[in-house]
Write a structure and sequence with these properties.
The chain has 166 residues and is mostly helical. It has one domain. α1 runs antiparallel to α4, α4 packs antiparallel against α6 and α6 packs antiparallel against α7. The radius of gyration is 18 Å and the shape is globular. The two termini are 30 Å apart. Keywords: Membrane, Transmembrane, Transmembrane helix.
Length: 166
């Protein structure tokens, strides 16, 4: 007996799947030590919009070693790991495309964008509370920067979500 597929067959992934891949690539590339080192260098002018944005992309920085940080490598990379995990979970959980009044690309775009804003804020809170020296004030301050990061970069995830079926 052969393999039987039910439902439509398409060469495209789901909107959540393409958004998840984009989130993984965005954090993997722009959070890498090579990119964060380049963005922190004098190559980007922090007083220009372009320089600000290039530095913002490096927000979920991850490392290959802990550099003596308390809590080890996991604590150093907690924000980046939590961002990817939460973004993937929220992309699959937010059913905007299925329940939207106007289904289609507009709801896919905003669903992907919103998922990344929420993931950025939640990842920052979790990293602040579960990392070394946890405090509520640090968690609230980091939530602001994480949600700001998600708001200004979430359009990339929203655009990637347009490439898949609902």
């Amino acid at each position: 007996m052969g393999l039987v597929r039910s439902g439509p067959v398409s060469g495209y992934g789901t909107a959540a799947g393409t958004g998840a891949l984009a989130a993984l690539l965005l954090v993997g590339i722009c959070g890498s030590p090579a990119y964060t080192g380049w963005a922190a260098a004098t190559l980007t002018d922090p007083d220009s919009a372009g320089g600000f944005y290039l530095r913002l992309l490096a927000w979920p920085a991850w490392r290959l070693d802990a550099d003596g940080q308390a809590g080890g490598l996991f604590a150093a990379d907690l924000r980046a790991v939590a961002l990817v995990v939460l973004a993937v979970a929220l992309l699959y959980l937010l059913p905007a495309a299925q329940v939207a009044r106007v289904p289609g690309p507009v709801s896919q775009f905003f669903s992907g964008w919103a998922a990344y804003v929420l993931a950025g804020g939640l990842a920052a809170v979790l990293a602040a509370l579960l990392g070394p020296d946890p405090s509520l004030l640090a968690a609230l301050q980091d939530a602001s920067s994480g949600a700001g990061y998600g708001f200004l970069t979430g359009w990339i995830i929203g655009t990637a979500s347009l490439g898949g079926r609902a």
